[in-house]
Amino acid sequence: MYNDIMDAVTRKLDALFPEITVYTNGVEQGLIEPCFFVGLLEPSEKPLLGHRYFRSTGVSIQYLPGEVEQPARELNRALDILIESMEYLSLADGSLMRGTKRSGEPRDGVLNFFVDYDRFGMRTGNTEDPMENITVK
Q1: 3-state DSSP helix/strand/coil percent for the chain, to nearest 5?
Q2: pLDDT < 70: residue spans in the chain
């Protein structure tokens, strides 16, 4: 599921900013700016009743605008687009995921954007036989 989310985020960024390179791994040399870096932030899972669970996947998107005349205005433009456009992701199987807690922080010439993609799920597993009878006094 994590790779599906990462792929959907990179597809969305490619569609929103076709002229900007998107990286999902660290780049030691040959960095091409402007660019995006996409990574996961502390994915977590919480068990619920029975075979149900709640999974939260935080995504971090960093935007380096490169050499532009007004970097603050460029970061604000990118933040506007990301806040509005990253609300829904279309996964490869056609299902949609909604992004919550969308926020951004332009600092030192870099935009840091954060969004959580949460979902409820159910695992298939061995179901226990229910009790036949119970007597309560």
Answers
A1: 20, 40, 35
A2: 28, 125-131
